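User: Sequence recovery, please. Input:
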């Protein structure tokens, strides 16, 4: 799917989710939750995984999938899941490192907005030598995705208006969060939303001086989506 627009949208900041957008981590996340859940006698359907685990805050997941457990038990469950995720090795989504590197040649801010936590983020950043102008993680907000608060906070930190932000998200919860915050959004490996453009990976994107749909700040170049 490609974006069609007569006037390109001006973009001053590009914000990325982490899991499923920068790193291919969905399998590790799902495994961490399901393995831990089995220890407590739970099993979940694929629909429950999609709705309550992928792209969601840990509080959202715990409240919906472990509603009968006490707060102290939820804390232990969460700790076990975190430990399993922190020990994982992650590969990046195809083309994303090159795309971020290219963005650094222009006057746009690059931010990370994730439901992950500092220890995991640090591990990923060191694994792949990444850095961002702004990082918002689960520790920074009271209400995680699908609530808009994480993206609203990132925009506030970067002093960027929502209409001038472009967000890359993979999960339904993350897309809900970005759209509710007023940002432009491109979905990664998610074609559930007919009104939102999507890409299979970042090799489908190009930055050039013609036929772009998102104009990079103070530049005559922009972001375009190549058709599959």
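Assistant: Recovered sequence (228 residues):
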């Amino acid at each position: 799917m490609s974006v069609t627009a007569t006037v390109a949208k001006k973009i001053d900041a590009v914000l990325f989710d982490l899991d499923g957008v920068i790193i291919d981590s969905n399998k590790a996340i799902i495994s961490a939750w399901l393995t831990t859940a089995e220890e407590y006698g739970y099993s979940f359907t694929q629909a429950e995984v999609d709705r309550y685990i992928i792209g969601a805050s840990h509080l959202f997941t715990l409240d919906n999938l472990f509603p009968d457990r006490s707060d102290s038990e939820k804390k232990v469950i969460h700790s076990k899941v975190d430990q399993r995720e922190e020990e994982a090795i992650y590969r990046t989504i195809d083309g994303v490192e090159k795309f971020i590197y290219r963005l650094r040649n222009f006057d746009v801010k690059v931010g990370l907005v994730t439901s992950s936590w500092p220890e995991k983020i640090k591990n990923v950043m060191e694994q792949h030598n990444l850095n961002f102008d702004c990082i918002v993680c689960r520790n920074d907000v009271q209400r995680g995705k699908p609530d808009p608060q994480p993206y609203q906070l990132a925009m506030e930190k970067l002093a960027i208006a929502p209409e001038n932000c472009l967000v890359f998200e993979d999960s339904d919860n993350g897309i809900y969060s970005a759209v509710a915050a007023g940002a432009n959004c491109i979905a990664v490996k998610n074609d559930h939303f007919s009104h939102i453009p999507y890409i299979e990976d970042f090799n489908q994107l190009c930055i050039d001086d013609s036929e772009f749909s998102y104009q990079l700040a103070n530049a005559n170049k922009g972001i375009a989506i190549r058709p599959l």
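The chain has eight helices and ten strands.
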